[in-house]
Amino acid sequence: MAGVQTAAALREQGFTGTVTLIGAEPHQPYDRPPLSKAILLGTAEHSAFDIDFEALGIDLRLGCEALALRPEAHVLDTSAGPVPYDVLVLATGAEPVRLPGAEGVPGVHLLRTLDDAERLRPVLARQHDVVVVGAGWIGAEFATAAREAGCAVTVVEAADRPLAGALPAEVAAPMAAWYADAGAGLRTRARVERVEPGAVVLGDGTRLPAGAVVVGIGARPATAWLAGSGVELGAHGEVVADDRLRTGVPDVYAVGDCASFPSARYGTRLMVHHWDNALQGPRTVAADIVTGAAPAYDPVPYFWSEQFGRFVQYAGHHPAADTTVWRGDPSGPAWTVCWLRENRLAGLLAVGRPRDLAQGRRLIEAGTPMDPELLADAARPLKSATA
Ligand SMILES: Cc1cc2nc3c(=O)[nH]c(=O)nc-3n(C[C@H](O)[C@H](O)[C@H](O)COP(=O)(O)OP(=O)(O)OC[C@H]3O[C@@H](n4cnc5c(N)ncnc54)[C@H](O)[C@@H]3O)c2cc1C
To answer: 108-148: per-residue pLDDT in tens?
Structure first.
């Protein structure tokens, strides 16, 4: 996504030099969000980007893996030989974290690539009993699709609630009921002891029959190949970029899931593993390459998830907030939670309330002071709850 968007943005912004787009996968570049939704259920065949690379003069090299970077020589070593560059943009994304001991066990799946989704389609079609390891975004979306397909689904989560790494307890707790409503089992505080062919064994000895196991326990930047290159990697393996998405190595940028950048808006470094960041970041990279002086990249992060019949949207960054305001009842079908910092919106999560999301996103962007009491009135448009 970020590589394709960078190449397209370079052309949009008038770049006339050679653009080479290198990717390890053999498929035409494609969009990932449909993989855990329409592609899995077979209601869409593919999600390839509708971009005519040839017409844009983009040299697309598929099935080609970047193996090492030699910055002094301005050369990228690939499985198809060395590729010289003037400017290099790293957009290698992330790869799923694997479950120790589960690798190579028949019937164990990940969900990151088109190949993964295609391997999972027959699992759904045959209505296998499925155990999902991890109640995160991917686990919830897969469980949704598998239930829709008629599979028996049990989701196993080590934490005490779904989305423990992403949302505060009081917000994630009501989501546990969504699993039950959809007829999916959710076992929290459950550690996987081992995976055997046909079963997942938990720490307490429980044996869950599993025609298939889907592991969704997070993703890590796909940057191992950069070790020793001089490109700085952060604590999570992400490329450490500046506010123009430049790395510390001359003429090398990093964008999308593989990178982190400093956010002046939130006073912290952000690593965002969501689609919108892989759309917006490339515009900054392209502008900086073309003009040499792009404005700082400081987005209001945004993402969505479709799970258990609900449209969940998030904007901003809540950890630094000092006040939480609810709009609506979290046990109902539609509600929003707003996070304020010094009475300004820092972030919000909207379930089935896309207007709240759209208005809130603009208010975060503008830093408008809010009135928490007005904000708590779910019948009032969010944009009219300003102080
Ligand atoms: C199943 C699924 C569902 C999702 N749904 C949503 C959603 O609903 N909403 C949302 O906001 N986000 C969603 N996302 C997240 C979103 O798709 C990602 O944030 C986005 O794809 C990131 O783009 P990227 O270009 O950084 O990485 P990627 O899209 O992962 O692209 C990186 C590419 O680099 C290639 N690569 C890696 N290493 C090398 C190498 N050494 N040499 C050559 N090529 C290499 C990879 O093969 C890959 O094709 C979803 C992700 C997945 C997996």
So the answer is: 999 999 999 999 999 999 988 999 999 999 999 999 999 99
- Asked if 210 and 200 count as a contact pair (C-beta separation under 8 A), the reply is yes
Give me Rg for the CA atoms of the chain.
Answer: 22
SS (H, E, C) 319-361: CCCCEEEEECCCCCCCEEEEEEECCEEEEEEEECCHHHHHHHH
Question: Measured between alpha carbons, how far is 348 from 253 in angstroms, rounded to an integer?
Answer: 30
**CA–CA dist 272, 258 (Å, integer):** 9
CA 352 from centroid of its chain's CA atoms: 20
The response to whether residue 302 sits with its C-beta less than 6 Å from ligand 1 reads: no
Q: For ligand 1, is residue 116 a contact (CB within 6 Å)? A: no
Report, as an integer, the average pLDDT of 257-266: 97
pTM as predicted: 0.97
Domains recognised in the chain with CATH numbers: 2-95+219-291 (3.50.50.60), 98-215 (3.50.50.60), 309-384 (3.30.390.30)
**Range with the lowest mean pLDDT among 32-46, 73-87, 293-307?**
32-46
pLDDT band at 72 (very low <50, low <70, confident <90, very high): very high
**Residue of 40, 114, 257, 284 with the most ligand 1 atoms within 8 Å of its CB, for mutation:** 257
- Distances, alpha carbon 287 to alpha carbons 209, 279, 298, 349, in Å: 53, 13, 14, 31
Averaged pLDDT, 40-48: 91
- By most ligand atoms within 8 Å of CB, the mutation choice from 28, 32, 132, 279 for ligand 1 is 32
Atom of ligand 1 nearest to the CA of 25: 47
Written as one letter, the residue type at 280 is Q
Is any atom of ligand 1 closer than 6 Å to the C-beta of 304?
A: yes
